[in-house]
Hints:
Radius of gyration: 20 Å
Shape: elongated
Amino acid sequence: MQRQFIWGDTKHNRRFHAIGWDRITVPKDSGGLGIRKLEAMNKACLLKLNWKLRENSDELWCKVLRAKYECDNSNISSTRRVSTSSLWKALINLQPMIEKFTVWSAGMGEGSMLGVKRG
């Protein structure tokens, strides 16, 4: 859809594309148009949502998802049901990436802390 908008394509008329998509998504200061790749933006937004769920957010949408899928803050359930939403499936699919870049550290009885691995 983004491509159709940029190049003026319609369902019945496809125009000549004088510039490649890989060039359009290059930052402006590097000679591109600065349009972000939707796949990367979608993944970033989903990772942020996943992080909020794990960080014990008291926002209503977090409470609803935790109750619906019966999960606690630290573990997003990987149980798939027939009625599992596409959002939940996407969050489950990103679990390995979240786990790869997070670390748990236990304190002196004051609870645990979730942080981001460096490097």
